[in-house]
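Please produce the structure of this protein holding adenosine monophosphate.
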Amino acid sequence: MPSHVRPTVIHDVGMLREAVKALRAAGKRIGFVPTMGALHEGHMSLVRACRAECGASVVSIYVNPSQFGPSEDFARYPRTLEADLDLLAAEGIDLVFAPENEAVYGPGHATWVDPGGVAELLEGQCRPGHFRGVATVVLKLFGMVRPDVAYFGQKDYQQAQVIRQMVADLDVSVEIRVCPTVREADGLAMSSRNRYLSPEARQRALVLWRSLEAAHAALSAGERSTAAIEGTMHEVLATAPEAEIEYAVVVHPDTLAPIDRVESGAVALLAVRIEGTRLIDNRILQAD
Ligand code: AMP
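Below is the modeled complex.
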């Protein structure tokens, strides 16, 4: 049994505003960690960064339907609220916002954020409408929480860039922090979707990290050709039976645009389906 006090869980937007207002009136800097729940150590690293830097920490748990495509896993996405609350209690979180869909998207909801630029590449092409859903819900959550600082994971590298771009383009008054990807001991990036993997698929999924390691090693060995490094990534991914590669690329770290020559700081990004489970990962490449 956890001995910690459960955080206050709020489902209503009006009550959230009141609670945050009280924290702000007490002079606290408000940190915010948006999540879809099914929390793991990756999420908890953001929560800890938030706690360390902000006087008050708000975590949202909301599986946002508008960022899932019609054939994606919205219905079966893991929902583990009780376990999530135990984890957050252990970190001393002040407020958890866990709204129902009706509280986020009212019956007349008709306004969407349409992110261009970096949102149009890679994930934007594989998952049409995904970033429109992400940007809209994140802007709405920012409007509800009004945080001073918001925390995102490098695990979703492109998402973090889309949020940065939205905040800059729409003059949203919030600081964005991006925290490093937390991995399992063998390198697999932690993800709520890892629970979909069978033991065999879990083993095969290690090719994502191996592929990123191989890209890193190639750069360190002096390779500068993007095509050659991407070729190495594909070769490693091809060693996993039935891995379906959606993309495995090395691109510019800010724009995610293609590059001819790889310099330190370029980012390798990949999306691969293992036994039907879609996994993404990335690594910023540095020549050792
Ligand atoms: P999600 O619940 O998947 O929407 O993720 C919520 C936040 O946690 C996002 O900013 C993610 O990038 C971040 N996150 C997810 N997995 C990890 C991880 N393994 N390491 C660091 N951050 C993560």
